[in-house]
Amino acid sequence: MKLGIIGATGWLGSALGAGLLSRGILQPGDLVLLNRSGPRPDYHGHADVTWARDVADLVAQSDVIVVSVRPEDWPGLDLRAEGRLVLSFMAGVDAATLAGCSGRIVRAMPNAVAEIGASYSPFWAAGGVTEADRDTVRRLLSAIGTTDELRTETQIDLMTALPGSGAAYPALMAVAMAGFMRAQGVCEPIAWRAAEAAVIGGARLLEGRITEAPALLAAYRDYRGTTAAGLDAAEAAGFDRAIEAALSAATEKARRMAASPA
Ligand SMILES: NC(=O)C1=CN([C@@H]2O[C@H](COP(=O)(O)OP(=O)(O)OC[C@H]3O[C@@H](n4cnc5c(N)ncnc54)[C@H](OP(=O)(O)O)[C@@H]3O)[C@@H](O)[C@H]2O)C=CC1
Ligand SMILES: O=C(O)[C@@H]1CCC=N1
């Protein structure tokens, strides 16, 4: 299979290319790459990839095409992909808009954790996508982590808001936590290590057992100690409302982008 990646040197496109090559899912000769800034002598340690001249050249050389450009760059691509499977990573560019390229459309929502091969990248397939196409999508996405198929396209906007945000909310928490420590006179490196202990250490404890989060919170509350006092104060200050506001705003932005394409 020849895979064309439009946006091959971007944040996600580059992570996909790196994962496909390092996991041996595709060989360098299977990759047809395109970006805006031009060919590079080395692509993740490989020189023997193919750089397309333009979008039409990439389509001519590819069986499957990944579109990983910013949403606002989609109209300018003028992609014509009749008979091809087209896998879009773009937020807020819906299937009705993508259908203009005449390909078989799948939308996936990876995140920045693709950089370390641990993205959760759910996908949704439009009409006309075959079982073989779905297998291809699962194989490609396995290069950057895990996936599930979604039943409706509207859920892509929700996934854009949550897993799509990658490390953003953990980073937001870490910055607030380290800031509190610094404000209390803790030196910079120890402030960051304290925040890392809570954000990363806590996440590692929950890894693979996230559904146990409510029970873990109950255990802290039953303890009736300092953490219980902190949890109560966080809730009273609107912690849940802040998360809901963030995810609603991001979902709404994705919906607005789809309703008014660039
Ligand atoms: N980053 C994220 O965390 C997430 C991103 N997404 C979606 O993934 C898509 C890609 O995002 P991201 O990787 O962050 O974006 P980047 O800005 O990092 O990369 C965009 C890529 O597109 C290339 N490009 C831009 N215009 C053209 C063009 N006309 N022809 C060919 N290539 C072009 C750029 O080339 P060059 O390198 O030369 O500039 C670059 O390689 C977006 O649509 C975004 O909504 C979805 C979930 C999470
Ligand atoms: O912030 C963004 O727009 C990108 C796309 C979806 C998630 N991150």
Automatic annotation (TrEMBL):
Main location: cytoplasm
GO molecular function: pyrroline-5-carboxylate reductase activity
Binding site for NADP(+): 6-12
EC number: 1.5.1.2
Catalysed reactions, semicolon-separated: L-proline + NAD(+) = (S)-1-pyrroline-5-carboxylate + NADH + 2 H(+); L-proline + NADP(+) = (S)-1-pyrroline-5-carboxylate + NADPH + 2 H(+)
Pyrroline-5-carboxylate reductase dimerisation domain mapped to chain residues: 153-257
Pathway involvement of the protein, from the record: Amino-acid biosynthesis; L-proline biosynthesis; L-proline from L-glutamate 5-semialdehyde: step 1/1
Pfam families registered for this protein in UniProt: F420_oxidored, P5CR_dimer
Location relative to the cell: Cytoplasm
Top-level taxon of origin: Bacteria
Pyrroline-5-carboxylate reductase catalytic N-terminal domain mapped to chain residues: 2-92
Keywords for the protein's UniProt record, in alphabetical order: Amino-acid biosynthesis, Cytoplasm, NADP, Oxidoreductase, Proline biosynthesis
Cellular component, GO, one term: cytoplasm
GO biological process, one term: L-proline biosynthetic process
Alphabetized HAMAP family for the sequence: P5C_reductase (MF_01925)
Family statement drawn from the similarity comment of this UniProt entry: Belongs to the pyrroline-5-carboxylate reductase family.
Function according to Swiss-Prot or TrEMBL: Catalyzes the reduction of 1-pyrroline-5-carboxylate (PCA) to L-proline.
Protein name (record): Pyrroline-5-carboxylate reductase
Organism per entry: Paracoccus siganidrum
Lineage: Bacteria, Pseudomonadati, Pseudomonadota, Alphaproteobacteria, Rhodobacterales
